[in-house]
Amino acid sequence: MPETTAILLAAGESRRMGELKALLPWQGQSLISHQVSALAAGGVDRIIVVLGYRQEELLPEIEGKPGVEWALNPDYLQGKTTSIKAGLAALGGRLPEALLLLNVDQPRGAETVAYLLRQHRSNGPLITIPTFEGKGGHPVVFDGALVAELGAITEETQGIREVVRRHQEGTLRVEMESAEVLWDLNTPEQYRAALNETG
To answer: Which residues, in sequence order, are CB contacts of 144 under 8 Å at separation 6+?
Structure first.
């Protein structure tokens, strides 16, 4: 069975939140634990969590979970692209059929992950992007053939945006029923708003 891999980015400082986002409560567990569980339940075979800032506090949340590995990004202060590259380096020789990228502060349900992966597999695009009311969200799913291109991204070229621009014709945009795919919990206000939407 072809493998699906997710790279979950959790290396940042959470400066705008004022506390470590990965440890915020979310649906009865920490945000990072929720993300790992949702990815696994959504059909991801291998989850690589990229840690950096205060990694010793986050490790207990993920260690020992089936299918979950972690990679350390000592250069996390230099931008998100360094964390993506750290996750890609952890792939080793196992190139996935599909690669899903998600930030720890973008909580997504297992149903969302599963639906996007089904759409990606059945339509066969190079890139699948969820949208809500026409606005692009996350997670973004890449064909494994793009791993090398992703490994060459830089902050100067806006990271994965450059790869997406390059392959616009091979990109599938999937309109979703929920604004969940747009959630990005950078501030306490955004966190509270998302909590309210989950009921």
So the answer is: 95, 96, 97, 98, 99
Please give the backbone phi and psi of residue 7, each rounded to the nearest 5 degrees, phi first.
-110, 115
- The beta strand positions in 11-139, using DSSP E, are 25-26, 29-30, 46-51, 68-72, 98-103, 127-132, 135-136
CB 117 within 8 A of CB 162: no
Residue 53 burial (C-beta neighbours within 10 Å; 0-12, 13-18, 19+):
middle
Q: What does pTM read for this prediction? A: 0.95
Shortest CA distance to 31 belongs to which of 2, 61, 1?
61
Taking the C-alpha atoms of residue 19 and residue 34, their distance in angstroms, rounded to an integer, is: 17
Angle between helices 55-62 and 31-41 (to 10 degrees): 40
Q: What percentage of residues in the chain have a pLDDT greater than 70?
A: 99
